[in-house]
Specification:
The chain is α+β, with helices and mostly antiparallel strands and 173 residues long. It is built from seven helices and four strands; from the N terminus they run H-H-H-H-E-H-H-E-E-E-H. The protein has a four-stranded mixed sheet with strand order 2-1-3-4. Bound molecules: FE2/S2 (inorganic) cluster. FE2/S2 (inorganic) cluster (FES) binds at residues 3, 99, 101-104, 140-144, 147, 149.
Length: 173
C-alpha cells in the first residue's frame, strides 16, 4: 500500500530563547563551511554536518551558514525545512516518530501517540525533562504495509499496539 500524503516533519515547537549554540560550535561550523562552500550542491552536507555539531538547526545557525556560504538565509531555511532529517528544534537523545499517515491513522496510531504522551509526560514536539526522548508525529514513513508504524532513532517498528509501545521505548533506556 502506498501513501499519497507528503512526508513532512511537524514544526510546531517554539524555538527556545537561548538556543544553546556555543562559540565553539560556530567555529566548527566555520570549518565545515570553509571545506564545502565552493563545491556545487554543498548546502545539504553543510547542514547535515552542522546539525551533527549542534544537534539541530536553529535560525541563528542557518543565518551563520548563509553568511559563510554567501547565499540567502531563505535558501538555507528552504532546504532545512524541506528535508525531514533536518530539525529546527532541539531533539531528545532518542527521537520517537509515530506515523499519522492515512494507513497508520486508520490503524489507530493516534492511540499510540496518546499513550506516549501520557507515559512520557510530553506533548508532540517536546523533549522529556531528562533529554532522553522527543516525540514527533509524521506523515507517512514509507512503510504503510507495516502500519501502524513507530520509528525510534533509526529503528522501525511495525504493527505496533498502543498497549505495547512502552515496551519498545524502554529498550532505549
Ligand atoms: S501511512 Fe505510510 S507508513 Fe504510515
Amino acid at each position: 500500500m502506498s501513501c499519497a500524503s507528503p512526508c513532512t516533519t511537524p514544526k510546531q515547537v517554539a524555538i527556545p530563547a537561548d538556543d544553546g549554540i556555543t562559540p565553539e560550535m560556530y567555529r566548527k561550523i566555520d570549518v565545515i563551511v570553509a571545506a564545502h562552500k565552493d563545491k556545487p550542491g554543498s548546502l545539504i552536507p553543510v547542514l547535515q554536518k552542522s546539525q551533527e555539531v549542534c544537534g539541530y538547526l536553529p535560525h541563528s545557525v542557518q543565518r551563520h551558514i548563509a553568511k559563510g556560504m554567501k547565499i540567502s538565509p531563505s535558501v538555507v531555511f528552504g532546504v532545512a525545512t524541506f528535508y525531514s532529517f533536518f530539525t529546527l528544534v532541539p531533539r531528545g537523545k532518542h527521537v520517537i516518530r509515530v506515523c499519522l499517515g492515512t494507513a497508520c491513522y486508520v490503524k489507530r496510531s493516534e492511540e499510540i501517540i496518546d499513550k506516549l504522551k501520557g507515559e512520557l509526560g510530553i506533548k508532540v514536539g517536546e523533549i522529556t525533562q531528562d533529554g532522553k526522548y522527543s516525540l514527533e508525529a509524521v506523515r507517512c514513513l514509507g512503510a504503510c504495509g507495516l502500519a501502524p508504524v513507530v520509528v525510534v532513532g533509526q529503528d522501525t517498528y511495525g504493527d505496533v499496539a498502543a498497549t505495547k509501545v512502552m515496551e519498545i521505548v524502554k529498550k532505549y533506556e
